[in-house]
Amino acid sequence: MGEITRLVNGDRGKNYPSKDKLTPIGDIPFISAINIKDNTITKDNLLYLSQHQYDLLRDGKLKKNDLVVCIRGSLGKNCIYPFETGAIASSLVIIKIFINENIIINYISVYFDTSLFKLDINKYNNGSVQPNLGARDLMKFLIPLPPLEEQKRIVAKIEELLPLVEDYAAFYNELEKLNAKFPEDIKKSILQYAIQGKLVEQRKEEGSAEKLFNQIQEEKQRLIKEGKIKKQKPLPEIKEDEIPFEIPKTWKWCRLGNLINHIMGKTPPRSEFKWWGEDMPWVSISDMKDYGEINYTKESVCQEAVDEKFINVSKKGTLLMSFKLTVGRTSILNIDAVHNEAIISIYPYIDKNYSLRNYLFYILPLITQWGDSKKAIKGNTLNSSSISSLLIPPPPLEEQKRIVAKIEELLPLCEELKI
């Protein structure tokens, strides 16, 4: 480099501008490494010198098309200076070519972006705490010099290809985003197919959801009669314009409250430490994972809180759903626990071998996000009434089992796509 160029340092004497001499608006740009981006100067965070301060400088004055290289901190960062005048900070140097007719600026600029240049940076970097290049060392860097006409052709070919590389980079980045989304998109599609009756075939011998619905209503009335659950207000009839999509003939659109009983939780007063202890795990939304199990909780409450503040303890195997902020997140308890008021425990009236529980586990996150159900969410929250009014299309019991089995076969494959 020292045989074909000379190096100009910034002024490091008494006239080097202090911070109070620099302004965000002014006459002469004062360039530091932070202003170099994509081989040019960005005006973001650019500071200026006054004409008077510029005139006092002995070195480091820039002219248009000067090469600028960083030798402290962001080693090798470089650009062709685009403005008429300017000055450099002490972390930069100006590279000036001895004979402009024989070497073109753009070729040297190309060299500054090569791995060859970076190898010499690593070779001569003498900084311990902060990366640093000595000016004399920079002049030792090796550069392969072709004839002038070939320099021009090299630069012309690079200028022809770089836009294509940038286009490719943009397409590649977009593809990477799509690849990152793809597993989740496939997962959503599988669940969407499941809830529309498209994931498994319907079998006539498995009966109908209408029959299952009637059995559930009989069980619900029995529980009310025995005083195990409270009698609820009748839920509104389902109107034609509420139905978001068609389902198989053997399925039935229902209100969630006609299929399950749900119980909300509590948060004991934070100001009274007596309610908090180690006796019973207390679930908050942060303890829940999408389609996950809860094996432990961050906080617990004492037995007195369980007895006085909570309606019941949710037993191991209970399905939980969040209905505030993170609406529709489902998890299954793998421990006995209580939970806060942003979560409900879900108890299907009929649930042979957890069939309906498991179906709801996968389906509830979807039904809280569509159509009129979504309109029920106000300020990212549901209430007891809107939870009960959610629309859900249950299939016959045996088909529920087959749907869950197919989901559990396919979802791990979606996870493998993330690797």
UniProtKB/TrEMBL annotation:
Q: Which GO terms describe its molecular function?
A: endonuclease activity; hydrolase activity
Q: Does the keyword Flavoprotein apply?
A: no
The EC number(s) given in the record are: 3.1.21.-
Taken from the record, one Pfam family name reads Methylase_S
Per UniProt, residues of the Type I restriction modification DNA specificity domain are 12-161, 248-410
Which InterPro entries does this entry report, sorted A to Z?
A: Restrct_endonuc_typeI_TRD, Restrct_endonuc_typeI_TRD_sf, Type-I_RE_S_subunit
Supply the alphabetized keyword list: DNA-binding, Endonuclease, Hydrolase, Nuclease, Restriction system
Q: What class of enzyme is it?
A: hydrolase
**PANTHER family xrefs:** TYPE I RESTRICTION ENZYME ECOKI SPECIFICITY SUBUNIT (PTHR43140:SF1), TYPE-1 RESTRICTION ENZYME ECOKI SPECIFICITY PROTEIN (PTHR43140)
Q: Which family does it belong to?
A: Belongs to the type-I restriction system S methylase family.
What's the name of the protein?
Restriction endonuclease subunit S
